[in-house]
């Protein structure tokens, strides 16, 4: 699709780069082919992570009164900060907080009290900053100079002392020492830690082997190995003024995430890498904002602070799914305004948040401008899984649990949190009907992205053989017919498509597993009000009405089916009509997803007696 004036390119955030383009003024049938490939361009990915809806996410304050100060004591009623930034956690769950403006390292205990671990000095006449200094020795007499990042490795706490350009260590016995670098001497020299030089280090991270990784804003990414040797990490993508770093370890190795002046870089153990920038458009046209500190969620997803727009954000590199999880979703600094409010994620306010830590499914945020430590809870990170024989989900159904698989292309799960996704809504609807009964319901989304109908049928056959699911829902639309002969000429009545669906039905009948087909129109098959932005540069305002052909195909398959055509057409004609499809991204809107989920849930209740509300 041609770009319109002033628009940014739609770049899929994935481990490998792709590009695509189409020509304007194509005939409708050709444009429908382009829709298929456009959707595949957007939707080729390994997994989609989902968070709970913003109003299910809760933001609370766990330390700091908001007043400026350096007082220790009860976390919520007495403790004060000047500018908390870096945050880390020990194995016992205690939080370690760098208070940059007070030149101190503080500890928030599980018992709910704050104490000063290291650092000293009196505030200036304004009461907003403690003059920095440099002194090793006893922790409470030591001096720091604009400390920022913090990491814990073994029994030691490491601090990036930014103004001094060194890495400091705090030991269990309360001694502060210079671990690496030369005070007040900036540089990029590698070698033994005592001879190495750093240039205003900011972010710190550690791995399970005792290695330290430093986002050294003046020289790049540095590593201090567990033998004390400093090296410069060579990344496959150039970086500029790194400020945040995080490491995620799993069986594949270490995945490194870096936040710098240009955005976010992710580097897999294989060396594959990709950069996401504020100019990239994510699912639904969202942007990544401006990353400050960063924390890994898993090997393909991060949470990071955006001090420029006063937000806390999430990004899944695999899917290109990103969203604001705390603060107001303002994309431009000119319109942003920092403030303070706890409560629902969509209603919360932050003020220049910097430090961030992902811990036990909670996010801990150093809300620097508000002088508080905040916690974000309420995640539901269930995923839509890429369909493949190697990635068949583990089959461990609980007693009296009905597992339902929702299978389809990217239309089953795109640019959505779990709560508002189609599988999430089906899960909630059927689950609510079972609260007073013995059965529970769990819906899993399995995506046949970049698969034609025949390949999807092969995967459905594998699913049937596992006998893991008590029911399967298969959503099909124009995009599903990729590879089916004469798809544009005979979209719904294609004999091959009907034969494939009939074969699927027979396999499930033999396995005694109920299967439900869902016929879903695309934006280009409906009226001009759906996907208008996509249609306007093309000669595509006249819809391709294939509803009757789809109906004949579904009937020929012989299985129960949900026909979304009459539902969508009725909604389109209504005075209260809401958009069913997006504009530049022609996947379903929240309203469209809700209609599909409601119709499928109702059909499943009829198909599966145990889900009926009795």
Please describe what this structure looks like:
Helices cover 16% and strands 30% of the residues. It is of the alpha+beta class and 614 residues long. Strand 27 and strand 28 form a beta hairpin. Helix 3 runs parallel beside helix 4 (495-511). Mean pLDDT is 84; it is low at 1-51 and 484-493.
Topology diagram in text:
Blueprint: H1 28-43, E1 47-49, E2 58-63, E3 73-74, E4 84-89, E5 95-99, E6 104-108, E7 113-119, E8 137-138, E9 147-153, E10 156-161, E11 166-170, E12 175-180, E13 191-192, E14 201-206, E15 212-216, E16 220-224, E17 229-232, E18 244-250, E19 253-260, E20 263-267, E21 273-276, E22 294-296, E23 301-306, E24 311-316, E25 321-326, E26 343-344, E27 353-359, E28 362-367, E29 372-377, E30 383-386, E31 401-408, H2 422-432, E32 440-447, H3 453-466, E33 471-476, H4 495-511, E34 515-519, H5 532-535, H6 547-557, E35 561-563, H7 564-573, H8 590-607
Parallel strand pairs: 30-32, 31-32, 31-33, 33-34, 34-35
Antiparallel strand pairs: 1-30, 2-26, 2-29, 3-7, 4-5, 5-6, 6-7, 8-12, 9-10, 10-11, 11-12, 13-17, 14-15, 15-16, 16-17, 18-19, 19-20, 20-21, 22-23, 23-24, 24-25, 27-28, 28-29
């Amino acid at each position: 699709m041609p770009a319109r004036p002033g628009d940014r390119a739609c770049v899929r955030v994935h481990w490998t780069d792709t590009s695509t383009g189409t020509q304007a003024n194509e005939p409708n049938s050709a444009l429908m082919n382009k829709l298929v490939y456009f959707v595949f361009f957007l939707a080729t990915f390994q997994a989609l992570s989902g968070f709970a809806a913003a109003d299910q996410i809760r933001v609370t304050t766990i330390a700091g009164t908001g007043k400026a100060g350096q007082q220790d004591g009860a976390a919520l009623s007495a403790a004060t900060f000047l500018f908390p930034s870096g945050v880390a956690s020990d194995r016992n769950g205690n939080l370690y907080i760098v208070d940059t403006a007070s030149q101190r390292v503080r500890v928030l205990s599980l018992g709910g009290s704050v104490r000063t671990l290291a650092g000293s000095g009196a505030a200036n006449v304004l009461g907003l900053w403690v003059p920095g200094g440099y002194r090793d020795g006893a922790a409470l007499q030591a001096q720091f100079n604009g400390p920022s990042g913090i990491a814990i490795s073994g029994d030691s706490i490491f601090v990036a002392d930014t103004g001094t350009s060194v890495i400091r260590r705090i030991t269990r016995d309360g001694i502060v020492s210079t671990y690496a670098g030369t005070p007040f001497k900036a540089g990029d020299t590698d070698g033994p830690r005592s001879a190495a030089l750093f240039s205003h280090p900011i972010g710190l991270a550690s791995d399970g082997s005792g290695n330290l990784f430093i986002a050294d804003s003046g020289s790049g990414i540095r590593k201090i190995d567990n033998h004390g040797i400093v090296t410069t990490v060579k990344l496959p993508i150039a970086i500029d003024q790194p400020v945040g770093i995080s490491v995620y370890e799993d069986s594949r190795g270490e995945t490194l995430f870096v936040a710098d002046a240009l955005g976010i870089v992710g580097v897999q153990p294989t060396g594959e890498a990709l950069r996401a920038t504020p100019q990239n458009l994510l699912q639904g046209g969202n942007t990544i904002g401006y990353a400050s500190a960063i924390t890994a969620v898993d090997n393909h997803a991060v949470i990071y602070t955006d001090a420029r727009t006063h937000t806390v954000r999430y990004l899944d590199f695999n899917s290109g799914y990103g969203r604001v999880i705390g603060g107001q979703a303002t994309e431009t600094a000119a319109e942003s305004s920092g403030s303070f409010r706890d409560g629902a994620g969509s209603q919360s306010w932050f003020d220049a948040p910097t430090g961030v830590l992902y811990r036990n499914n909670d996010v801990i945020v150093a809300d620097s401008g508000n002088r508080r430590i905040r916690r974000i809870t309420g995640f539901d990170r269930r995923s839509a899984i890429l369909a493949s024989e190697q990635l068949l989900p583990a089959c461990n159904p609980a007693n009296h649990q009905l597992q339902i698989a929702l299978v389809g292309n990217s239309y089953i799960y795109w640019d959505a949190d779990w709560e508002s996704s189609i599988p999430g809504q089906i899960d909630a609807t059927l689950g609510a009907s079972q609260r007073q009964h013995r059965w529970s319901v769990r819906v899993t989304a399995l995506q046949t992205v970049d698969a034609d109908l025949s390949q999807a049928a092969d995967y459905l056959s594998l699913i049937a053989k596992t006998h893991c699911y008590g029911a399967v829902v298969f959503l099909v639309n124009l995009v599903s017919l990729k590879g089916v002969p004469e798809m544009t000429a005979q979209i719904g009545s294609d004999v091959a498509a009907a034969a494939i669906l009939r074969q699927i039905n027979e396999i499930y009948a033999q396995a005694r597993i109920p299967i439900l087909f869902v016929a879903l129109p695309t934006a280009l098959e409906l009226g001009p009000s759906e996907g208008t932005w996509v249609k306007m540069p093309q000669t595509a305002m006249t819809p391709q009405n294939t509803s009757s052909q789809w109906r004949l195909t579904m009937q020929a398959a012989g299985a129960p089916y949900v026909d979304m055509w009459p539902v969508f057409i009725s909604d389109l004609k209504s005075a209260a009509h809401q958009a069913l499809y997006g504009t530049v991204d022609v996947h379903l809107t929240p309203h469209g997803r809700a209609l599909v989920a409601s119709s499928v849930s109702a059909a499943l209740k009829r198909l599966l007696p145990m889900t009926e509300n009795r």
